[in-house]
Amino acid sequence: MSESRGKTIRNLVNSKINRILKSQNEPMVKSELAELRKGIGGIPGDRPELWWSVFEDFPEQYMSDNDTPSKEEWSFYIALTLFAMHQQGHDVEKEPMHVEGIPFGQAVRRLAPPGDEDALARVRRRFNIVATSSDISELSYHLRGIIQLMRSAGIPLDYGLLADNLYHYQFPERVSRVRLKWGQDFYRRNANEESNKKKAQQ
Questions:
Q1: All residues at 6 or more sequence positions from 33 whose CB lies less than 8 Å from its CB, including other chains
Q2: Would you call 102 helix, strand, or coil by DSSP?
């Protein structure tokens, strides 16, 4: 059940962001992204001006039935608000910061230029801080800093996949699995670079 819920949240985020990116109504897009940015670091439901962005078409069975946001609401909300921050300063048509197929670990690795060991060490330290977050609130806080770096560098990310990761991170028994995937993706790109480098030298 929870596995399918993670995939559903992933699809919901992809659908929502793709609608924003493909919209021809530029003023509305700018307004929605600006409102979503105001929600960064907040709690789902706290800002009435975001209700329509967060809850419109959101499955009712995934909504909280008490005064605490559900895991689905948290992952959806964090992904959307971080995307809005990430997209700031980039043209939604020419430079989308949501690109499906780029997992979080791989995107983080791109922050370090190939061959720059000092930069790689700095990125690795930041990545470790994110990956050792104790709960969803701390994870959201540390993600903010690393997404700001991606925004400055123009490095895109798959926000649907990130939302799936965020959902599963909220289950103590699944945190290690999420961390494993992040680590694999971070170093998989490094391995690919070494392979490409060897091919170029042949």
A1: 20, 84, 87, 88
A2: coil
Q: Are 85 and 144 in contact (CB under 8 A)?
A: yes
pLDDT, tens only, 164-182: 999 999 999 999 999 999 9
Rounded to an integer, what distance in angstroms lies between the CA atom of residue 140 and that of residue 130?
A: 9
Structural contact between residues 167 and 6, judged by C-beta atoms closer than 8 angstroms:
yes
- 10-residue stretch averages of pLDDT, the chain, 202 residues long: 83 94 90 93 86 82 88 95 97 95 96 93 96 96 97 97 97 96 85 46 44
Q: What is the Cα–Cα distance from 4 to 74, expressed in whole angstroms?
A: 16
- 183: Cβ–Cβ under 8 A, 6 or more apart, which residues? 105, 131
Total number of domains constituting the chain: 1
CATH code, domain with 92: 1.10.520.40
As a dihedral over the C-alpha atoms of residue 56, residue 60, residue 66, residue 69, rounded to 10 degrees, the angle is -50
Boundaries of domain holding 113: 2-201
pLDDT for position 195: 47
CA separation, residue 182 to residues 60, 62, 71, 89, 128 (Å): 30, 26, 20, 27, 10
Distance in angstroms (rounded) separating the CA atoms of residues 51 and 42: 13
| Residue 119 to residue 125: CA distance in whole angstroms | 10
